[in-house]
Amino acid sequence: MPRRKRLRKVVAPPGFKGYKPYGTSGKVTGHVELLYEEYEAIKLVDYDGMNHLEASKLMGISRPTMARIYEEARKKIAKALVESKEIKTAFGNAWLDKSWYVCEQCHTKFNLPDNITQQACPLCSSFNINAITKTSK
Amino acid sequence: MKTIISSSGNKLNSEFDLRFGRAAWFCLFDDETGKSIFFQNEHSEAQGGAGTKASEFVIEMEATKVISGDFGPKAKELLEKFKIQMVILDNAKTTIGEIVEKLAGK
User: Fold this and answer.
1) Are A123 and B87 inside 8 Å of each other by CB?
2) Which is higher by pLDDT, A100 or A76?
3) Contact flag A116-B67 (C-beta cutoff 8 Å)
4) Which end of chain A is more exposed for a tag (fewer CB within 10 A), N or C?
5) Mean pLDDT of A12-24
6) Do A110 and B99 touch (CB under 8 A)?
7) What is the per-residue burial (b if ≥16 Cβ within 10 Å, else e) of A74-96?
8) Do the interacting molecules here have an ipTM over 0.90?
């Protein structure tokens, strides 16, 4: 049995469902699946300008793994551009950092699925809650 | 709103169980009726897939919230998909009764 994949921490999921090429002469042929962690890798390295080591620490994985994910992300985007394929985002092996909260009153950790509108602790109803970041984890 | 709490026994004074898939009992608390019902976890000794089975049980019971000590990757994935709120408590000494009181007290 292969070793279990360590979950990659993703601070925020991509703000889109995908990208579609336009003005193509033929029809769009298929799509590539960009995983959340791959999007995060591109964001940390190319957008935020971090090096692989810093980015890997943020995502809770080793530097080589980080480099592999980054490599894969670039390959996928290149493939989509050259072969005019759609890019769709997929969850992958991510753990969404933002979706977990801690109650400052009773120290309960919890997530808030998007069907819950009230931003309060589910146990003590305190409004004193904070998103869990990598420093408090 | 129904809540599932992982429990080590079938009474309100039983201790809370930190494990989710391998908890001995599950307490179903309904804050509309104020009643709590206990269910034995048939999969607590299972070889594998206990977390998945427990998550399926939660979905079947139409609970909207689960309170446990930790959730494995499979359970997490499934519960997230069905928009069930996961609540992580790390205090094993607390009893089911105390948790229920807090839930009912709001």
Assistant:
1) yes
2) A76
3) no
4) N
5) 83
6) no
7) eebbeebeeebbebebeebbbbb
8) no
Rounded Cα gap, residues B27 and A125, in angstroms:
20
- On the question of pLDDT at A42 being above 90, the answer is yes
Q: Cα(B54)–Cα(A78) distance, rounded to whole angstroms?
A: 42
Domains of chain B: 2-104 (3.30.420.130)
pLDDT on residue A137: 37
Residue B35 β-bridge partners: B30
Residue A136 has a pLDDT of 37
Q: Is the dihedral of CA B18, A123, A9, B55 positive or negative?
A: positive
Task: For domain A8-96, say whether CATH 1.10.10 is its number.
Answer: yes
Q: Where does residue A23 fall: left (phi above 0), alpha (psi -120 to 50 degrees), or beta otherwise? A: left
- DSSP symbols for A62-73: -HHHHHHHHHHH
Interface of B with A (CB under 8 A): 65, 67, 73, 76, 80, 83-90, 99, 102-103, 106
CA dist A123 and A133 (Å) reads: 21
pLDDT over 70 (residue A21): yes
As a whole number of angstroms, the distance between CA A108 and CA A104 comes to: 8
